[in-house]
Amino acid sequence: MQIIPVIDLKDGLVVHAAGGDRSRYQPVHLNSSICDSSEISQVVTSLLTLYPFPKFYIADLDAITGQGNHDEAIDNLFSQSPNKEFWLDKGSSYQALAATNRGINCKPVIGTESQRLPVSLKNTDLILSLDFKYNQVLGHPGWLESPELWPKTIVVMTLDLVGSNKGPDFAKLSRLCKDHPDKHFVAAGGVRDVNDLMRLKTIGITAVLLASALHNGSIDAAMLEKF
């Protein structure tokens, strides 16, 4: 099972996401035990000092909410880290992504909260993020009701659990893994410690997005080595 650190960008800085209320997100270094800056390249360096992660997940929250973007900083990061893979959610539609050239080390994410209508991603290399908040799917409900549209890799993003220290939505994740054994599900939101990681691995989760547990030290390098 892969561990993928999350970089949430807002107002030019990496922020600490908690509870899905983006208006209250604070610079990540204020609550981090591993970095003393919230500048994107320095946060990535701090994470790589902790562990040599091969992949990162980036959410450009300004782009997702239509309040600008961090394109320059993200492109610089891609250039500086050509051997890393970056999953990028910037609220883009499938149509916009189809018309855009992307870096070789970038895999775009289609988040349901940003889409008007479902489209088939079955034969693409894109990543789908099924976005939930308070147990309700965000975006058109057809995304959840039409698994025939899904690509191979699906993030299950539970926004109200992000940074909550309440644990993942194991019931939902287990049900999805059982019902769709041909898909690779990625858990996002609520992971507290290595026990949560072990349980996710047991139910069939192939990767986990992490931020808070890395920054607060509850999951350290020795624990990451187990995965």
Could you characterize the architecture of this molecule?
By secondary structure, the protein is of the alpha/beta class. The protein has a single domain, classed as Alpha-Beta Barrel (TIM Barrel). It is 27% helix and 25% strand. The chain has helices spanning 40-50, 61-64, 71-80, 94-98, 142-145, 170-179, 194-203, 212-215, 221-224, and strands at 2-10, 13-16, 26-27, 55-60, 85-89, 106-111, 127-133, 136-137, 153-158, 184-188, 207-210. Strands 1-4-5-6-7-9-10-11 form an eight-stranded parallel β-barrel. β9 (153-158), α6 and β10 form a beta-alpha-beta unit. The radius of gyration is 16 Å and the shape is globular. It starts with a strand and ends with a helix. Belongs to the HisA/HisF family. Pathway: Amino-acid biosynthesis. Keywords: Amino-acid biosynthesis, Histidine biosynthesis. InterPro entries: Aldolase_TIM, His_biosynth, Isoase_HisA-like, RibuloseP-bd_barrel. This is HisA/HisF-related TIM barrel protein.
Strand-helix topology:
Elements: E1 2-10, E2 13-16, E3 26-27, H1 40-50, E4 55-60, H2 61-64, H3 71-80, E5 85-89, H4 94-98, E6 106-111, E7 127-133, E8 136-137, H5 142-145, E9 153-158, H6 170-179, E10 184-188, H7 194-203, E11 207-210, H8 212-215, H9 221-224
Parallel strand pairs: 1-4, 1-11, 4-5, 5-6, 6-7, 7-9, 9-10, 10-11
Antiparallel strand pairs: 1-2, 2-3, 7-8
